[in-house]
């Protein structure tokens, strides 16, 4: 079970990093208006409109993978054995407090007790 959770977490992190990279590569809606008036932004790797389709579809696929991995991690995170108790109950078993042990009386040190005898 731990191996499966580790694989799902790895896939989630890789999809998140890839999604961040794809979102940063995409241009905004306002960039099309600048390219229409000759600012030189129309020359791209995928052509004038090919990049929008490819990058947006890839981002949507990665977002779906990220969402499914998040739901799977939430499901596996809620699977617990029924016998586990509270953390405080476990702490009481580890360090029991003795009821008959009385604390030692605190005697204030006088000035004469602090002077060395020799």
Automatic annotation (TrEMBL):
What is the protein's species of origin?
A: Rhodoferax saidenbachensis
PANTHER family, per the entry: PROTEIN-EXPORT MEMBRANE PROTEIN SECG
Entry-linked NCBIfam families = secG (TIGR00810)
Q: What does this protein do?
A: Involved in protein export. Participates in an early event of protein translocation.
Its principal location?
A: membrane
Q: Does the keyword Oxidoreductase apply?
A: no
> What is an annotated GO biological process for this record, any one?
intracellular protein transmembrane transport
Q: What is this protein called?
A: Protein-export membrane protein SecG
Coiled-coil boundaries: none
Transmembrane intervals: 54-76
- Which GO CC terms are listed, alphabetically? plasma membrane
Q: Which Pfam families is this protein grouped with?
A: SecG
A GO MF term: protein-transporting ATPase activity
Q: What does the similarity note say? A: Belongs to the SecG family.
Q: Note whether Transport occurs among the keywords.
A: yes
The membrane topology term of the UniProt record is: Multi-pass membrane protein
